[in-house]
Amino acid sequence: MALMRIDEMLATSTDPVFSFEFFPPKTPQGERNLLAAVTALRELEPGFVSVTKTGASAQAQTIELVRRIRADHGIEAAAHFTCAGATRDQLRASLDELRATGLENVLALRGDPPNGETSFAATAGGLTHASELVALVTSEYPFCTVAACYPESHPEAPDADADMAHLRTKVDAGVHVLITNLFFANDAYFAFVRRARDAGIEVPIVPGIMPITNADQIKRFTSVCGATIPPGLLDALDVRAGDAEAVADLGVAYATLQCAELLAAGAPGIHFYTLNRSPATRAIVSALRLSRPWQAAPR
Ligand code: FAD
Fold first, then answer.
1. How far, in Å, are 71, 72, 86, 97 from residue 94 at the CA level?
2. Site residues for ligand 1, CB cut-off 6 Å
3. What's the pTM?
4. Hey, what CATH topology would domain 6-290 get?
């Protein structure tokens, strides 16, 4: 797919847009793993990849990785940007740097509280909510601005209605595309999209899918990010406890069925949380491309 803004890609692509999320590696071995995953997944011709920002002071690392993936692999790439640990001026400096690299897509986030802390505290001179970052980006830069949303509500939100109202404020600040938190029950996504449309949110809402590769890890992730594992899936994971290969096989099969149903219902694409590994995502996207469930989608 050509290098372009993500909103334009979604508007013009005849097939769903598949995208892959990576995180910046911390070790030389991690870097080799990431490059191997990018190389393997490049063959699947993703619409774009995105690179997370981990830690309060890691924005430069994300930008450099995104620049390299785009330049060396010819894949469109989006940099995750968070409010965490940065003043407005530091955010502007990072956005200027991103602009200088020729990048066109930004994923604007508040960021998680630092390890061990339960609530997010804004940096002095910085921002408190992602909506403020979206406003800063869209008022001063020409980027396509992507943001996060939560089909099962953000864990800090008092209730789903409050979370939806905050999402509407964020989208009104200039969001072009939303990507969801990971989820395992498609009904949660379908109901969320209906509620978002009722609330006047019209931008594409791309489902974010994490293929399960490790049972303990997914239980840890879901406990912090506000996603639930349906009881039947939880039972199936528990039955396979201690058999890593069986868990990974189940993860691929489950995510393939989940994506097929989403695409058949008209989802605009799938954003895969790859955890810097390629085999699961590769198997799922390959099966989807062969079976083309989106051809059954309502037009
Ligand atoms: P917000 O949109 O600001 O929402 C956070 C909470 O504040 C919600 O409960 C919301 O309801 C509430 N809220 C919003 N506005 C208001 C208001 N005006 N008044 C009161 N409450 C309000 N984290 C990272 O650290 N790095 C990453 O790279 C990263 N990538 C991600 C990618 C995706 C696709 C997703 C879904 C999440 C990602 N995260 C990342 C996690 C994210 O930073 C956390 O979920 C964080 O807790 C919330 O970020 P947000 O941008 O959704 O925040």
1. 19, 21, 10, 5
2. 52-53, 80, 82, 109-112, 129-131, 148, 154, 156-157, 163, 166, 170, 179, 181, 208
3. 0.97
4. TIM Barrel (3.20.20)
